[in-house]
Amino acid sequence: MPSRGRIVSPLAALCVTASTVAQTIVIQRSAPDEDRWNYPFNASVGFRTSASTFAAPPGDPAFDDRDAQFLIGWDTSAEVTPGLAPTRYEILSATVTVTTISGGVFVFDPTTDDWRTHLDPADPMFIADADAGRPIELFGVGFRNGFDAQTWTEFSPFQQAPFGNWQGTRNAFATDNEGRSGRDISRHVEQGFTPTPFAVGQASGVAQGASVPFDTPWTFALDVADADVLAYLRESLRSGRLRLMVTSMHPAPTMGQGAQNWPDYYTRENKFAIPLGFAATLDLTVRIGSGADLNGDGVVNGGDITVILNQFGGPGDADLNGDGVVNGSDITVVLNSFGA
Ligand SMILES: [Ca+2]
Ligand SMILES: [Ca+2]
Ligand SMILES: [Ca+2]
Ligand SMILES: [Ca+2]
C-alpha cells in the first residue's frame, strides 16, 4: 500500500487539473479488414471468396464441435486511440452484419439452442431442439500457440499441431469470454455447456422457422451491457484490433460434403461482396471518457480509488492518464469525476 503522503499529493493538484472532455467516435465500415474461413481443411486461408459455418457430427472425437467458423476483423487504431486504460472506452453500441449466399437450405432460428440438443439422440442426456433450425451466433476471438491480436492475420496457419489433430488446436477460436476467461467454446458439446454469444444473428425480413433466401443480411447487435462482452470490446479497442467469430451448429454430417444445409457467407474477396454491400459491416460508437469508474459499479467513488491503490506504483489498467504508471495523477482523475 502507498504511504499517506503519496495520496495527499494528488489531492493538492485537484484544483488545477482540468476535467477530461469526453469524445464520441462513430465507426462505420462497409467491409472488414480481414475475413477468414476458420476451418481445418481451408488451404486458401484468407483469399477464399466465401466462408461457411457448421458443426462436426455429434460425438465425433476428431473435430471441434463448432468445426467451421468465420472470422471477421477490423483495424480500429486509426479512429480509436489504442493503449488507453480499458475503462476509458465507453462502448455505446456495436452492430455487425454478414450476408449469407445460399438460399433455401436452412431455416431461421433467432435464439440460442441448449448444448444437449446437439448430442446424439441415443445419448441419455439428449433433449430435442425446442425450435426449428440452428442460430447463427457471434463470439469474440481468442488466440493460442503464440498468436495474439497483433500477430495473427487472415493468412496465419489454422493450427500448429500435426495435421490430423483438429480438436482444441486452432490458432484462432471462438470465445464467449465467460467471466473474462477468454475460454475456447469450440468444444462446448463435448465439455457440456451452452456458451453465451455476444449476439445472435437476426435475419432481415425472414420469419422464425422460415427458410432463409439467397443474399440474406444478418444483423448482430452486440450486448455491450454484458460485462464479458464489454471487457472484450475494450481490450479489442485497446489493442487496435477488433476480431469477431461467426459460428453455428448447423449439422454437416459428411464434413461439408453432400447436399448443403448450412450457411455460407460472402467474404470481402468475393467480387460481388463490396459492390453489393454483402461484405461484413461494423457500426460501433465509443465514447472516450475519463475511465474513472474503474470497478464498473456505475458510480465514481472510493471503490475506484481502492483499485488505484491496489495497483499503485506499477503499470496497470488503473493508469487513467496514460503516463505508464498507476500513481497520484490517476487518483486526481477519479476525484475530478467523483460522484458522477
Ligand atoms: Ca479474406
Ligand atoms: Ca433450434
Ligand atoms: Ca466505481
Ligand atoms: Ca498514471
Tell me about this structure.
This protein has 340 residues and is an alpha+beta fold. It has 2 domains: 4-20 and 300-336, no CATH class; 23-288, no CATH class. The chain has 6 helices and 13 strands. It has helices at residues 4-13, 188-191, 227-239, 273-276, 302-311, 328-336; strands at residues 23-29, 34-38, 50-52, 69-75, 89-100, 136-143, 172-175, 199-200, 202-203, 216-221, 241-248, 264-266, 281-288. The strands form 3 sheets. Strands 2, 4, 6, 7, 8 and 11 form a 6-stranded antiparallel sheet that branches. A 5-stranded antiparallel sheet has the order 1-13-5-10-9. The protein has a two-stranded antiparallel sheet with strand order 3-12. Helix 1 (4-13) packs across helix 6 (328-336). The chain is globular, with a radius of gyration of 22 Å. The protein starts with a helix and ends with a helix. It binds calcium ion (4 copies).
How much strand?
15-25%
Overall mean pLDDT stands at: 91
The separation of the N and C termini measures: 26 Å
Radius of gyration: 22 Å
Largest sheet: 6 strands, antiparallel
Run of helices and strands: HEEEEEEEHEEEHEEHEHH
- Give the helix tally: 6
Poorly predicted sequence stretches spanning 5 or more consecutive residues: 1-20
Number of domains: 2
Assembly classification: single chain
Task: Give the overall silhouette.
Answer: globular
How many DSSP E strands? 13
Would you kindly provide a brief summary of this structure?
By secondary structure, the chain is α+β, with helices and mostly antiparallel strands.
